[in-house]
Specification:
single chain; 6-stranded mixed β-sheet; alpha+beta; 344 residues; 13% strand; elongated
Length: 344
């Protein structure tokens, strides 16, 4: 077993989304956590928590996979998520999760007012909105009357796990402290169950192997994405250089146009100064020569960038068809030009 992965498995706690999911699959733990999050609902029982349940809003829409999904005896829907890293898209992410969860709340032929309520709950290992709150509860409201909440049955709740504000109920704080691996009261029944469940998870060889495989895959994926980002950066740099070259070319062409205008002006005044016309024509030739040289250099630069991009994408094992399509679109090449590049 890889030593790094072994230590990672041994050190992993509730803040690790894999451990969190396996722990929350326990019926009693999931029920008690929901009760602590939403004490006013007086939840009596729930369906057995479902791990990694997948929903798609439409056949061609992006699918969403819930970490923990369940419903209670009143038909309320709950999606519980552990968000480890901040990808700076939490608001849009919640919106999509809520949409997928809400779709389950509407039965065919059922009146809208009878739709079940939907709760999307995120435990974030960061402050999701950078506003310093320990808990964020989101509802729709009327902009002109902010205090007027729209009762549409959707509630989003986000916890800032690292926060030390202690603004939540002590029982809820104990669960947040467990996630953050802070000191907790050992007499809390939920804390006892969590520690026992984590120990059970850690002893499960199947889950340990699955964790290892997933970790290796995630590391490989991260490396692949890093290489792709590097390739994309090189392409962006190349396009930026091309853009700068085009700007210089446009500037030179404007200068040529100005020179031509001068020539025309000189022609209108030919009787006044033949010498000025001669000088204007000489300047025009010099600038046209400079443009030709710049155009040649720009063409050579573009060839180099395209060839470098092709090599970079081939090193990433991207298939030739995709490479040709990408190069053709990014550099606006004809089919013949594409064929010439790949014939080399």
């Amino acid at each position: 077993m890889n030593e790094f992965l072994r230590k990672k498995w041994e050190m992993a706690g509730l803040a690790d989304d894999y451990i969190f999911n396996k722990v929350m699959l326990d019926y009693d733990i999931c029920l008690e956590v929901l009760r602590r999050i939403l004490p006013d609902l007086h939840i009596k029982k729930i369906k057995l928590p479902n791990n990694q349940q997948e929903f798609a809003v439409a056949p061609d829409a992006k699918a969403v996979r819930f970490d923990i999904y369940t419903t209670d005896e009143q038909g309320n829907h709950y999606d519980i998520e552990m968000q480890v890293a901040d990808h700076h898209n939490i608001a849009k992410r919640i919106r999509y999760y809520q949409t997928a969860s809400s779709m389950e709340a509407y039965d065919k032929g059922q009146p809208y007012e009878q739709a079940d309520d939907s709760y999307v709950i995120f435990f974030c290992n960061f402050d999701p909105f950078q506003l310093g709150q320990q808990r964020y509860v989101l509802h729709k409201h009327i902009d002109e009357i902010p205090e007027q909440i729209i009762e549409d049955g959707q509630t989003d709740i986000l916890f800032n796990v690292p926060s030390l504000r202690h603004d939540v109920d002590p029982k809820m704080q104990a669960f947040l402290d467990m996630i953050a691996q802070r000191k907790v009261e050992a007499t809390d029944p939920l804390v006892v169950k969590l520690k026992e469940r984590i120990a059970v998870v850690k002893r499960n060889r199947k889950w340990r192997s699955e964790y290892m495989r997933r970790s290796v895959y995630e590391m490989d994926q991260e490396m692949r994405e890093k290489k792709i980002r590097e390739g994309e950066r090189k392409i962006r740099d190349g396009k930026r250089e091309l853009l700068e070259g085009k700007r210089e070319l446009q500037k030179s062409r404007r200068e040529i146009l100005e020179g031509k205008n001068e020539v025309q002006k000189g022609k209108r005044e030919i009787q006044k100064s033949k010498r000025e016309i001669k000088e204007g024509q000489d300047r025009l030739k010099e600038k046209e020569q400079l443009i030709q040289e710049r155009e040649q250099k720009l063409h050579e630069n573009q060839q180099t960038i395209i060839k470098t991009s092709i090599v970079a994408m081939r090193e990433l094992n991207i298939d030739e068809t995709t490479i040709k399509k990408e190069i053709k679109e990014k550099f606006d090449l004809s089919d013949k030009e594409i064929k010439d590049y790949f014939a080399e």
